[in-house]
C-alpha cells in the first residue's frame, strides 16, 4: 500500500486519481478547497487546502506527514485556466492565474522536499498540460504559468535526484472534465471581435462545453498517472492524449526548424 498526497482532489483528474487509488487499496491524503465534497473512505485523509495560501499549505503538508508517516507520492494537481487577450485580462486575473498554476506548485514542492529527503526519497508528480509546449490566442497567462512550472521542475529534477526523489510532469491534452466550465474569462474588448480570441469569447458566451467532445478520458489519464509512479527512474514527462502527442510533437519540430546554426555561430568571438 502506498500513501499519496493529492491537491485538487475534489474534481477532474484529481478526483479520478483519488478514487482509483482508494479502489486499488492505497491511502490518500486528499486536499481541496471544499473537502466536504471529497469521497468518504476509511483510507482517505481529507483536508481543506487553498493552495494559494502559503501558511495553510505548509501547515497541511506538515500535518499530513506527521499523522500519516511516509508519503510515497505527492500529486500536485490543483489548477485553473484563465482566458482572454493579454490586454483584456485584469490585474486580479493575472495574479490569480500565476498564484494557482505557478507559485502554489513551487511552494508545494518546497514544503514537501524536507519530508521526502528525511524519509529517503519519494515521487512528485505535477499536472501541467500540452499547453506547456504550445500556445494559443487568449491563453497567454495560462501558457505562461504552465511553461513556468515546467521550467522550475526541470531545474529541481537535477537538484533532488541524489536524494532518491523523482519528478514527473503530466502533460494531458483536452480531457473531459469540468475544466472548461471553471475557466476565468476576461471581459471581452470589442476590438477583438473579429479575431480568434473573439471567436472563443462567442463560444463561451453561447454556453458551449469546450471539453464535451474532448479526446481525453479522465479515467485513463488517472490510471496512467498512478502507473507512472511505479516506473523507475521517474519518467520526466507523460504526454497523455492523441491531441497532446500531436500538438507537442508539432511544436517541438517547428521549434527545432527555427534554429539557424550559421546565425548562432556568427555571433561567437
TrEMBL record:
<keyword id="KW-0560">Oxidoreductase</keyword>
<dbReference type="InterPro" id="IPR002347">
    <property type="entry name" value="SDR_fam"/>
</dbReference>
<dbReference type="InterPro" id="IPR051911">
    <property type="entry name" value="SDR_oxidoreductase"/>
</dbReference>
<dbReference type="InterPro" id="IPR036291">
    <property type="entry name" value="NAD(P)-bd_dom_sf"/>
</dbReference>
<protein>
    <submittedName>
        <fullName>SDR family oxidoreductase</fullName>
    </submittedName>
</protein>
<dbReference type="Pfam" id="PF00106">
    <property type="entry name" value="adh_short"/>
</dbReference>
<comment type="similarity">
    <text>Belongs to the short-chain dehydrogenases/reductases (SDR) family.</text>
</comment>
Amino acid at each position: 500500500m502506498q500513501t499519496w498526497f493529492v491537491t485538487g482532489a475534489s474534481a477532474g483528474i484529481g478526483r479520478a486519481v483519488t478514487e482509483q487509488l482508494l479502489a486499488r487499496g492505497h491511502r490518500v491524503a486528499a486536499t481541496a478547497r471544499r473537502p466536504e465534497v471529497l469521497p468518504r473512505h476509511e483510507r482517505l485523509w481529507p483536508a481543506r487546502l487553498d493552495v494559494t495560501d502559503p501558511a495553510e499549505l505548509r501547515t497541511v503538508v506538515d500535518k499530513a506527514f506527521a499523522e500519516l508517516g511516509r508519503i510515497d507520492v505527492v500529486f500536485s494537481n490543483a489548477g485553473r485556466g484563465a482566458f482572454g487577450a493579454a490586454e483584456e485580462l485584469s490585474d486580479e486575473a493575472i495574479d490569480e492565474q500565476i498564484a494557482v498554476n505557478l507559485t502554489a506548485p513551487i511552494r508545494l514542492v518546497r514544503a514537501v522536499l524536507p519530508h521526502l529527503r528525511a524519509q529517503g526519497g519519494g515521487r512528485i508528480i505535477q499536472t501541467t498540460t500540452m499547453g506547456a509546449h504550445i500556445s494559443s490566442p487568449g491563453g497567454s497567462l495560462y501558457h505562461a504559468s504552465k511553461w513556468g512550472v515546467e521550467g522550475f521542475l526541470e531545474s529541481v529534477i537535477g537538484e533532488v535526484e541524489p536524494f532518491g526523489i523523482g519528478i514527473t510532469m503530466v502533460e494531458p491534452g483536452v480531457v473531459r472534465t469540468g475544466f472548461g466550465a471553471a475557466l476565468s474569462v476576461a471581459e471581452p474588448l470589442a476590438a477583438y471581435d473579429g479575431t480568434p480570441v473573439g471567436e472563443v469569447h462567442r463560444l463561451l458566451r453561447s454556453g458551449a462545453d469546450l471539453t464535451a467532445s474532448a479526446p481525453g478520458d479522465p479515467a485513463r489519464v488517472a490510471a496512467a498517472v498512478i502507473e507512472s509512479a511505479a516506473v523507475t527512474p521517474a519518467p520526466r514527462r507523460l504526454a497523455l492524449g492523441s491531441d497532446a502527442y500531436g500538438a507537442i510533437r508539432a511544436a517541438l519540430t517547428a521549434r527545432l526548424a527555427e534554429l539557424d546554426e550559421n546565425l548562432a555561430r556568427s555571433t561567437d568571438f
